[in-house]
Amino acid sequence: MWEFAGPGGETNGLVIHLGMSGRCGVTTAAQPKVTHTHFALRMADDREVRLVDPRRFGGLRAGPLAKLMASEPLGALGPEPLERGFGGAVLAERLGSSRRPIRDALLDQEAIAGLGNIYAVEALFAAGIFPLVEAQRLHASAWERLAGTIVTVLQRGIDNGGTTLKDFRNVEGEVGRNQDDLRVYGRADEACPRCGAKLVGFVSGGRSGAYCPRCQPRPRTRQVR
Ligand SMILES: [Zn+2]
Predict the structure, then answer these.
(1) Residues near 72 by beta carbon (within 8 Å), at least 6 away in sequence
(2) Is residue 107 situated within a structural domain?
(3) What is the pLDDT of residue 166?
(4) Residue 22's pLDDT band (boundaries 50, 70, 90)?
(5) Fewest CB atoms within 10 Å of the CB: 71, 154, 168, 211?
(6) In angstroms, what is the span from residue 90 Cα to ligand 1's centroid?
């Protein structure tokens, strides 16, 4: 999201969605455009913001910021884990009646914004919660613990400059380092970094993940604390 002061003092916004493999970069205007550059915004100092998107899953919107925030797709998003007031109560309110596996429920952007598969899988490991348990079985204490680990894994991802498995680059074209910091995602059959047990891979809702059968045991009781 980019914010610009309009001529009458109003705040305008530009929202760019990268899709699966789009990249936003800042470059000089003189730099030749690479293939699949679909958008370029010239700035006063002759630099350009450019969107390169080979697969064209990305998109952009521009207009008054308040209107962008209130309309689709941003207006439909759930609360942000990194904003004030986020916690176990918010998670429980948004997901507490869901019968879906907790990992799948966490990926619903209209319930909670900003959690992709990697971060959901990592947060569940850090919280010691079995990823395939029905969301509605989580007790308040489990929601609270999970809210804490969600914030931790997202902040760690940001501090590491993002997770680059294939395509992700920041605006300077640099890859992230968070892939080296993943505890369980993509590590099925490897040893659990906490207890040494063999990590188990799973697929649910078409998305893969992994968990530790010892640190995240399948719950035997109705409520998961
Ligand atoms: Zn373990």
Answers:
(1) none
(2) yes
(3) 67
(4) confident
(5) 71
(6) 28
Tell me: do 58 and 101 sit in the same domain.
no
* pTM (predicted TM-score): 0.84
Residue 14 burial (CB < 10 Å; 0-12/13-18/19+)? middle
CA–centroid distance, residue 131 to ligand 1 (Å): 14
pLDDT tens for 142-161 read 999 999 999 999 999 988 87
- Asked if the structure places residue 224 within a domain, the reply is no
Specify whether the backbone of 145 is left (phi greater than 0), alpha (psi in -120 to 50) or beta.
alpha
Determine the residue type at 73: P
What's the 188 CA to ligand 1 centre distance in angstroms?
12
Q: Do 56 and 139 belong together in one domain?
A: no
Q: Write the pLDDT tens digit of every residue in 31-66.
A: 999 999 999 999 889 999 899 998 888 889 999 999
Largest CA distance in the chain: 64
Q: Which domain holds residue 13?
A: 2-76
DSSP state, 53? -
Residue 122: which H helix or E strand, with range? helix 117-127
Domain count along the chain: 2
